[in-house]
């Protein structure tokens, strides 16, 4: 075979191959082309706007508009907007998903994202977005709950962090410190009332099988929290402990609150009971889609929920706690928080352990309903 024939055969093989690659690339880009709108609030705008810009850089034919809406107006804006004018993507917590169930688009793409990335999320968070075997959204943030306690105040009045294992231990020490300081120092900050109510309710629910008994125990414990001896309603620093998720990290790093703090697992109702609780978070939800933009919507939600590098940055900066479990597999999470756990594990490590090990809550909606009823009665 002469050289010319060899060249012709080579070209006959290479040219179709190049055409196939070219067509595939065109189709790949076309699959994520289009325009979509995402609504964020002040807690999520920084991340969603950055992730949208990063996504657009890799997908030149995609245009993602991220709109910042105040947290106070966010749900009302969704409620009052006509269906055809709704954004493509919003974020909602468990209660929001239930409130707007009729507006949410149940599409195969949401199920496909969860099926593809299900090991990315803990079972509790997946359960919160599931309804009748379908997924209503994709978890974006989580809310693992930890105890932050001022070791300097405990030591000053004769206590140690190790003395606190159950809520009864906690309340007893709180009342004693209140009495020893003539009411100057209370146990909790008013900032954490909602966290306290939800965490104690979740713990009681996991320990109870009788709904009537459950409601009575929750009401009894929640009402006791409102005792004037336990909650600091005035002043920014006259309290011993915080029950918090990531909200406290910025306050500590910016030294907005004084003292030497210890971050540890929260107390339990009974000695030896579970202390790992993730109380929900925000989920990316589809409200508006069509055949022209659904591939872009699916691709963007997948990207936003699993972009490890940017999610880690948000976590370390204390902006949001990602639901993606793979976010936690990094040495950067050993970063210290000012005046906290000087010799122990970083709070980030503790939060991550809580999120990974949190069990499925039996009935999160019932917890919310009981707490709402108690608030109305008070």
Automatic annotation (TrEMBL):
* Coiled-coil region list: 52-84
Q: InterPro entries per the record?
A: Bact_solute-bd_prot1, SBP
Q: Which UniProt keywords apply?
A: Cell membrane, Coiled coil, Lipoprotein, Membrane, Palmitate, Signal, Transmembrane, Transmembrane helix
Which residue ranges does UniProt annotate as crossing the membrane? 7-24
Presence of the UniProt keyword Signal in the record: yes
Q: What PANTHER family does the record tag this protein with?
A: ARABINOSE-BINDING PROTEIN-RELATED, POLYGALACTURONAN_RHAMNOGALACTURONAN-BINDING PROTEIN YTCQ
The protein depicted here goes by the name ABC transporter substrate-binding protein
Organism this protein belongs to: Clostridium chauvoei
């Amino acid at each position: 075979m002469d050289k010319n024939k060899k060249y012709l055969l080579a070209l006959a093989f290479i040219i179709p191959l190049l055409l196939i690659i070219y067509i595939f690339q065109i189709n790949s880009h076309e699959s994520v082309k289009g325009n979509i709108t995402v609504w964020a609030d002040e807690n999520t705008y920084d991340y969603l706007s950055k992730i949208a810009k990063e996504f657009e850089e890799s997908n030149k034919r995609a245009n993602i508009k991220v709109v910042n809406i105040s947290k106070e107006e966010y749900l009302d804006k969704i409620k009052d907007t006509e269906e055809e004018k709704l954004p493509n993507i919003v974020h909602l917590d468990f209660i929001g998903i239930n409130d707007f169930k009729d507006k949410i688009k149940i599409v195969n793409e949401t199920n496909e994202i969860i099926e593809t990335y299900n090991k990315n999320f803990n079972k509790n968070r997946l359960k919160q977005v599931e309804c009748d075997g379908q997924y209503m959204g994709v978890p974006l943030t989580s809310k693992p709950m930890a105890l932050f306690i001022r070791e300097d105040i405990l030591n000053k009045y004769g206590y140690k962090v190790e003395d606190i294992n159950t809520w009864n231990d906690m309340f007893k020490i709180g009342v004693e410190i209140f009495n020893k300081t003539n009411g100057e120092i209370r146990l909790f900050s008013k900032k954490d009332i909602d966290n306290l109510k939800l965490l104690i309710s979740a713990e009681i629910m996991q320990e109870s099988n009788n709904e009537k008994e459950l409601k009575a125990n929750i009401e009894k414990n929640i009402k006791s929290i409102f005792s004037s001896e336990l909650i600091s309603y005035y002043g920014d620093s006259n309290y011993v402990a915080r029950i918090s998720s990531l909200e406290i990290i910025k306050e500590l790093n910016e030294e907005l609150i004084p003292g030497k703090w210890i971050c540890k697992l929260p107390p339990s109702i009974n000695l030896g009971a579970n202390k790992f609780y993730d109380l929900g978070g925000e989920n990316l939800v589809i409200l508006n889609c069509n055949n022209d933009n659904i591939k872009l919507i699916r691709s963007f939600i997948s990207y936003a929920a699993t972009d490890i590098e940017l999610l880690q940055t948000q976590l370390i900066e204390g902006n949001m706690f990602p639901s993606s479990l793979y976010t936690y597999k990094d040495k950067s999470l050993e970063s210290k928080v000012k005046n906290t756990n000087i010799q122990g594990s970083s709070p980030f490590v503790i939060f991550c352990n809580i999120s990974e090990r949190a069990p499925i809550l039996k009935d999160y909606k019932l917890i919310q309903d009981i707490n709402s009823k108690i608030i109305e009665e008070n």
